[in-house]
Amino acid sequence: MNPFIELGIRHDIVNAISELGFENPTPIQEQSIPVLLTGSNDFVGLAQTGTGKTAAFGLPLLELLNFEENYPQALILCPTRELCLQITNDIKNYSKKMDNVHVVAVYGGASISDQLRQIKRGVQIVVATPGRMLDIINRKAIDFTKVKFVVLDEADEMLNMGFQEDIDSILSTTPDEKKTWLFSATMPTEVRRIAKKYMNEPFELTMGAKNTGNVNIEHEYYIVRARDKYAAFKRIVDFNPDIFGIVFCRTKIETQEIAESLIKDGYNADSLHGDLSQQQRDKVMKRYRDRSLQLLIATDVAARGIDVNDVTHVINYSLPDEVENYTHRSGRTARAGKTGVSIAIVNAKELGKIRQIERVIGKKFVKAEIPTGFDVCEKQLFSIVHKVHNVVVNDEQIEQYLPRILEEFKDMSKEEFIKRFASIEFNIFLDYYKNAPDLNAPQEEGRRFERSDERGGDRRDGGGKSEYTRLFINLGSVDEFNRGDLLGYICNQSKISGRVVGKIDVKGVYSFFEVPNADVEKVMTGFTAAEFKGRPVRIEVSGEGSSERREGGGGGYQRREGGGGYNRERSGSGERRSGGERREGGGGYPRREGGGGGGFRDFSGKSREDRGERKRRF
Ligand code: AMP
């Protein structure tokens, strides 16, 4: 038997939710539906967003109300317009095989006359944000005297947003004998207080430990210097080519600035904050929901009620002022049983705040290291490789060109061809990142990096790092070098003593090593015209100071790259993709909009053709 039938839900509702893909109840549905179906309890459910709580209260309401009558019997209050529309839509979907179910969404920022008209026609379920609801009550346009159930959804959010008085006024128009069902992600004392005030011995249900965040969310923090924050953030994004994320800032201005910088740097980002008109906000949200936007930069208030599934990362570009808000932010990922990562980019002084959040969410953060430029390059390279491997070939279209293509490559070996193909995008990232500095800031005064490879670290700390120069070499583990091999090779080639070589960092296709400033010339000379297995060996200085300037804040880099060949190429392809849309692909950063390497194309699981972009591209 269908498990929802076993819980007591009737067939026509079960058929409708089966079409939505609900096969088994979520834990909160399993536990709350039988209780709520009795219709005789007040109820408090402590549950995160994304756990399926809309159906947890929505399905019982559909069972309990009398749809032969056309007067308000249930009132659902929620904090935001987005959530209000979502709940309304969900309930309409659950009831689409039932007759005469009328649900109205009542929220600010939209025509009140439409809402009044719908109410007048007769509704049984009203889903509302408190401000507009009160407005309609004050106009005496609705009668709540026969309301049987009131649902307070995301009660903590409503209180955070200062709706306490409005809720009091609204509830005073409902009968005393109604039942109240309250859902909240967190249970601060204020919520406890309203639970006490409005309810009579409520049935309490806690999903997981109290105030514990969603177990599917991993929490990570990165420590960076304030001036490196933006560069570090970009690096994290680059290290996750398939990211579909929400980035939280503290203020509207910061939100706008970060979004603008990202757009300038060629990322597929846009902002969501209170200074935008409702129409602008709807447009941004639509793009994000449709996955044609990869990064949504938002303030806490604007992002309330965002219920997009499959968000892979929540990034706290700035930590929230209120610790409780962290739970709301991170709850935007790992919805509906998926996993997700919530990242905080902090400076060393903010560690106390991380510990405070850990206490509230009942979970530890993992300290993560900002990936090096080379980690990013490697990740991007393999992302390209996977894309090439998985690309869906349009045989019919490409066939006519095949003879010419094959002719062009007829003298090239498979290995050579693959290498060149992968290099098209890879070189771009390589160029951008070749001098990229370490962006991890020390956690405590006097302690530098927490690295497994401490070779040379003491010397740097003790003697001052300026005495050493970090060099790049285009050989790495793929050439079967480990640190020892590389040390031997360097010494042999440049005739310097192994004892003076500092930290060696072997990467996949490249490595770094440090030598005293006085020996740099000797190393360079030693490697002049050097070859390894028939390939020229390249040594370059990887200067921290200069590269920090290049990456930081986007500005310096932007100017440097501005007129470059690459830039022109990217802008061109960006325009092709977006049909000349202003914001796409104009920037200096070698990224995902055009050309096919950036990762955006694949993460939606859709091809460009699916998104109707083919016409514009050809
Ligand atoms: P909610 O917490 O109500 O916002 O639900 C989060 C997401 O989970 C929504 O996209 C729902 O459509 C989905 N969902 C809710 N209940 C189920 C279920 N029993 N099976 C599968 N998906 C569900």
Describe this structure in words.
The protein has 28 helices and 20 strands. The protein is α/β, with parallel strands linked by helices and 618 residues long. The protein folds into 4 domains: 204 residues, Rossmann fold, CATH 3.40.50; 154 residues, P-loop containing nucleotide triphosphate hydrolases (Rossmann fold, 3-Layer(aba) Sandwich), CATH 3.40.50; 59 residues, no CATH class; 110 residues, RRM (RNA recognition motif) domain (Alpha-Beta Plaits), CATH 3.30.70. The strands form 4 sheets. The chain has a 7-stranded parallel β-sheet, sandwiched between helices. Strands 10-11-9-12-13-8-14 form a 7-stranded parallel β-sheet, with helices on both faces. The protein has a 4-stranded antiparallel β-sheet with strand order 16-17-15-20, with helices on one face. Helix 17 runs antiparallel to helix 20. Bound molecules: adenosine monophosphate.
Summarize this structure as a short list of keywords or feature phrases.
seven-stranded parallel beta sheet; binds adenosine monophosphate; Rossmann fold; 618 residues; alpha/beta; 20 strands; elongated; 43% helix
